[in-house]
Amino acid sequence: MQTTDGSREAKARQERELAGLDALDMPLRPRIARAARIWAGLWPKLAAAGILLAIWQGIVLTGWRPSYVLPGPVEVFERLASDVTARDLPLAVAITMRRAAIGFGIALAVGMLIGLALVGSRTLRTAGASLITGLQTMPSIAWFPLAILIFGLSEPAILFVVVLGAAPAIANGLIAGVDTIPRSLLRVGRVLGARRFKKYRFVVLPAALPGFVGGLKQGWAFAWRSLMAGELLVIIGTQPSIGARLQFARELSDAPALLSMMLVILAIGIGIDGLLFGTLEAFVRRRWGLGVRS
Amino acid sequence: MTAPIATALAGAGPLRGPLAISISNLSKSYGPPGNRVLALRDISLEVRRGEFHCLVGASGCGKSTLLSLIVGLERTKVGKIRLQGRPTLMFQESALFPWLTARGNVELALRLAGARKATWRAEADRLLALVRLTGFEHKLPHELSGGMRQRVALARALAQRADILLMDEPFGSLDAMTRDLLHDELEQLWAETGPTVVFVTHDVREAVRLGDQVTVLTSRPGRVAAVFEVNLPRPRLVGSADVAALTEEVTDRLRAEVRRHADD
Fold first, then answer.
1. Domains in chain A: how many in total?
2. Is A18 in contact with B99 (Cβ distance < 8 A)?
3. Rounded Cα gap, residues A128 and A118, in angstroms
4. In terms of residue numbers, what domain contains A285?
5. Inter-chain touch B145–A192, beta carbons under 8 Å
6. DSSP 3-state assignment of B82?
């Protein structure tokens, strides 16, 4: 009886020691208030925007160009405010964003398929990798004459170029993501019996995500640039869009409208990058424990 | 090549059961033709079912290569490996999937092993309790300490219900105190669940503490230099005279092996 008590005691002591070591070894992470964190990320951006506006206003004040060619920020923002409250700007933004979403969606599917095909086969990769990088460096606007020839001045012509602009970056991002997967994770996957489809579903794709997010961001940047180029060239009468408004403003020499559209383009580009992809990136980094002391 | 101390303390061990692993004349080399490096040369080794077998050797003895060959991560071209039962391998670094929680990692192993979906969660929690991680099921790997991560990896390996558990320096990166405690935990788990264990380490004391047999490997290329039987009663205290004496004997053998490479 005594020995059982003794060994039980020893076992309890051992468990307590293990729990104690666990508690001591757990990585400590200081908690920062949410508001403070958001503010810390926000104020430098606001400050940078303020400085840019000040420079803009400064240039206008020098009288370098007459105000009907280069209006100041106040005039442009007033114009923007009145455009936003009118119905046609929101409609134009909606149509442009729909094109962006569809184009990026197709580019995502195409880019991932190509990326996975290249990752899975050494021969395909040797053949395809430099071609994809070549496609990526090709200015998307150079595709438009061909796109217009094939599809006419139509929605598919715009989407065609958006997909060609974004898909290579997404494919390259996926390849880069897969290339940076720690070898140990792939070996564990094999030991656990993840083969073929399961290997990609449970190991390769999630493990590639931190690297892949960069490709997604880049893909979005290319998609947005291609879309703007496309909307400037391919203007469809019944479909108002941000690019079409920019083009009309230039034709009518309406400088405040032109600059306000440029601000909209900039804001959407930054907004999607930060809100959508920035959030995704932050989530992945947090979840994966990247950049966290462990 | 059995050590005198070990035979003096011989008792009923698992060293008479049927074979779980039988390796004969195994060699393995790497590199391009003409410039091949021999990692393992003519290894022959037998491990009985339920045995705790430790492999010790200095750097470059091909310990990890040997485990990779046994588990099938690398192809055997020269020699033969026969296994009775399914093997699994636990890595030196826990290699947990960083995007899954402790529970998620174990559940994925269950899922890939073909366990019924309804059982995943309860079984994962049971295995985590077995390695004393109740309350940490929802933690991500980077939120756990090194010792805890290795225990999750152990739970994940157990989830595969493998008959043969290969462990590649699983406690190599842990501090001495954690390692001592995990030795006790591992020994209890092994006694309760009864797999055949092949445990690779460069720490002779650890090998003598845990093993039924300790095989010393040479380096470059790896060959079997000596096999010691450890017939000391369990649980063994690292500080005890018997363990210390055998540790010294095995260490001497290992040192002699390392000295041979002084002029390399």
1. 1
2. no
3. 7
4. 95-294
5. no
6. strand
| Phi, psi of A283, deg, nearest 5 | -60, -45
Does A65 map to a domain?
A: no
- What mean pLDDT, rounded, does chain B reach? 87
Cβ distance of B113 and A193 shorter than 8 Å:
yes
Q: What is the CA radius of gyration of chain A?
A: 27
Work out the percent of chain A whose per-residue pLDDT is above 90: 57
Whether omega before B4 lies within 30 degrees of 0, making that bond cis, reads no
- Cβ of A21 within 8 Å of Cβ of B147? The answer is yes
- The type of residue at B23 is I
Residue A260 lies in a domain: yes
Within 8 A by CB and 6+ apart from A76, the residues are: A256, A259, A260, A263
Helices (H), B194-240: 204-210
Residue B13 reports pLDDT greater than 60: no
In a domain, A50, yes or no: no
Closest C-alpha among B55, B59, B146, B132 to residue B95: B146
CATH number, domain with residue A139: 1.10.3720.10
- Provide the pLDDT confidence category of residue A262 given band limits of 50, 70 and 90: very high
**Is the distance from CB of B103 to CB of B128 less than 8 angstroms?**
yes
Domain membership flag for residue A20: no
- Residue-wise pLDDT for B190-238, tens only, equals 988 889 999 999 899 999 999 999 999 888 788 888 899 998 888 888 7
Of the residues A22, A180, A280, A285, the best mutation for testing chain B's interface (the one with the most B CB atoms within 10 Å of its CB) is A22
Residues of A with CB under 8 A from a CB of B: 14-15, 17-19, 21-22, 25-27, 182, 184-185, 187-188, 190-194, 198, 202-203, 206-207, 209, 287-289, 292, 294
Closest CA to B63 of B218, B259, B248: B218
Neighbours of A287 (CB within 10 A): 17
**What are B216's two structure tokens?**
């010393």
Which residues of B have a CB under 8 Å from any CB of A?
71, 73, 88-89, 91, 93, 95, 97-99, 108-109, 111-113, 132, 136, 140-148, 156, 160, 177-178, 181, 184-185
Cα(B8)–Cα(B2) distance, integer angstroms: 10
Adjacent-strand bridge partners of B228: B214
What is the pTM assigned to this prediction?
0.81
The neighbouring-strand residues paired with A278 are none
The helix/strand/coil state of B60 is coil
Residues in Cβ contact with A104 at an 8 Å cutoff, skipping those fewer than 6 apart: A162, A166, A219, A220, A223
Report the C-alpha gap between B150 and B171 in whole angstroms: 7
